[in-house]
Amino acid sequence: MSLILFLCPLTSWAADDSADASAEEYAAPTTKATPYVFSWPGHEGQVTLRGGTTKGPETTLLETPSEAWIALQEADLDPKERDRRAILALAGDYRTSFDFLETEVFSGDGKPAKPYRSWGTERVHVVQDDADRIVLQHIMTMYIIDDDGNRSEPIVMKHWRQDWQWQPSTLLSYEGMDQFVVREVSESDRAGRWSQTAYQVDDSPRYAMIGTWNHSGSFSEWVSDPAWRPLPRRERSVRDDYQVLGGWNRITVNPTGWVHFQDNVKTVLTEPGVEHADAPVVAREIGVNRYQRIVDFAFGPGDTYWAATAPYWEMVRETWQPQIDKVGTFVAHRTCDEKPVFAAFFDLATPLAQGKRLKAKRTQREIDAIVACMAE
């Protein structure tokens, strides 16, 4: 019997956006050669990659247009239905890569921080597919290749979640310092548009953006309005000189995958919702997260985990939803009784992943207690 490791996100599995999101210890190898550093002439010999040193097995890329892409290109679709098919095309099996690079620096010595690079392999599941709402859950199944060429046992991690809503009447707004506000969206601002709400690995809220889908024969893309979001783990573990990432997202669907592009400003706050008056931004960065479709990859252990724990995570989602639906301000702390909240949620899921039966009433009480502690 093979060993399956169900990992809590101890390093950087806080899904920023789609994915700032791979753990450093599972990141792509750092090259010993001088890395190519876009737009920073003069720093080539000084800037090195941050991320990690491990590598995964070879993957086989899909070389022909996916079925989802073909469905998206069907003629004479209703505009909303074409949008829906573009969102559904985000589901599937992927080799992922996450790259972040500072392009402008406005504080300190003016030198850019180390560029960040990581990788993963994940299956994106369709959890809900209704006329006005689509929910996608990312589950990572990874294998590490050691120096002798041996492959590790499967490492399974519940990753981030994305909820898409047609013409949303409310929108989650991150204000910084663990504070959120749910705001109403006017009819004119939501007409013909979709929101994407991203959730942490433990299904606590992260950020939301509203934007518009545009389609062509080459690609379909969703471009968001600007919004704030919390620092991802890749930054929170090494930076304390700013409080929020502000910026916009572009998600581009192509025949064999999709790309999530970010334009972010690292923003300093003096209190929730209030930028520093004199020096509000320390740097600007771009992020390019690639989701390349793969075939014949062993995602079975991730499917097993999700099948065993999906009812529990549905309970977690439903417990959070009233907070996110209610107009007003709420707090979502990352720790409870000095323990990371995600660890508390994952601890409840672990016995289920190991085959234990879900005891709904007791589990619901435990979920309620964690959410209440987060919101104190």
Written account of the structure:
This protein has seven helices and 20 strands. The chain has a ten-stranded antiparallel beta barrel with strand order 3-4-5-6-9-10-11-13-14-17. The protein has a three-stranded antiparallel sheet with strand order 7-8-18, covered by helices on one side. Strands 15-16 form a two-stranded antiparallel ribbon. The chain has 376 residues and is an alpha+beta fold. It starts with a strand and ends with a helix. Helices cover 21% and strands 38% of the residues. Helix 5 packs across helix 6.
Briefly, what is this?
The protein is α+β, with helices and mostly antiparallel strands. It has helices at residues 67-72, 79-88, 187-190, 233-236, 300-325, 341-353, 360-374; strands spanning 5-6, 60-61, 92-105, 116-129, 133-142, 155-166, 170-176, 179-184, 194-199, 205-215, 220-224, 227-229, 244-254, 257-267, 269-271, 274-275, 281-295, 328-331, 335-336, 339-340.
Set out the fold topology.
Blueprint: E1 5-6, E2 60-61, H1 67-72, H2 79-88, E3 92-105, E4 116-129, E5 133-142, E6 155-166, E7 170-176, E8 179-184, H3 187-190, E9 194-199, E10 205-215, E11 220-224, E12 227-229, H4 233-236, E13 244-254, E14 257-267, E15 269-271, E16 274-275, E17 281-295, H5 300-325, E18 328-331, E19 335-336, E20 339-340, H6 341-353, H7 360-374
Parallel strand pairs: 1-6
Antiparallel strand pairs: 2-17, 3-4, 3-17, 4-5, 5-6, 6-9, 7-8, 8-18, 9-10, 10-11, 11-13, 12-13, 13-14, 14-17, 15-16, 19-20
Helix pairs in contact: 5-6, 5-7, 6-7
